[in-house]
Design brief:
Elements lengths: L4 H17 L3 H23 L8 H5 L4 E2 L12 E8 L4 E12 L3 E4 L8 E9 L15
Antiparallel strand pairs: 1-5, 2-3, 2-5, 3-4
Length: 141
């Protein structure tokens, strides 16, 4: 049976939501497998022989990961985090901050000093790879 592109887009959006809510790697792998099959069927049904392809720039963009789903593995890897923080005078609500994470100390946020007594990170994403072929001499003069 053939369906419209809108039906496939709805199915893929539902699978993406389900993946965000999943708690195990095996669940996410199964959902990814199903999403791939749905995408391939959509390619055949909607475009015939021409496959639907994701925009290469969109594919290169990391996705937001809930801290309930996963945490960064390497404590020295910089990530972008969504932060809610307050020090009584300044409040960040959904601010984007550069951060690192380790199991001992938790989140270390750039531009968010220790004066912030309540800091909550809800989501994070790895930073993209730097551009290829760019060489900069970082020695101080």
């Amino acid at each position: 049976m053939k369906y419209s592109q809108k039906v496939y887009e709805g199915a893929l959006a539902s699978l993406a939501k389900l993946r965000e809510q999943s708690t195990s790697d095996s669940e996410r792998a199964t959902i990814d497998f199903i999403a791939e099959a749905v995408s391939e069927k959509a390619d055949r049904d909607v475009l015939g022989s021409e496959p639907l392809t994701r925009d290469p720039l969109q594919a290169a963009i990391p996705r937001w990961i809930s801290v309930e789903e996963d945490l960064p593995g390497d404590p020295f890897t910089a990530v972008m985090a969504i932060v809610y923080a307050s020090n009584g005078h300044i409040t960040f609500i959904g601010a984007y901050q550069f951060a690192t994470y380790n199991q001992t100390d938790g989140w270390c946020l750039e531009d968010c000093s220790e004066e912030f007594d309540k800091v909550t990170v809800t989501h994070w994403m790895p930073l993209p790879e730097p551009p290829e072929g760019v060489v900069v001499d970082a020695k101080s003069e």
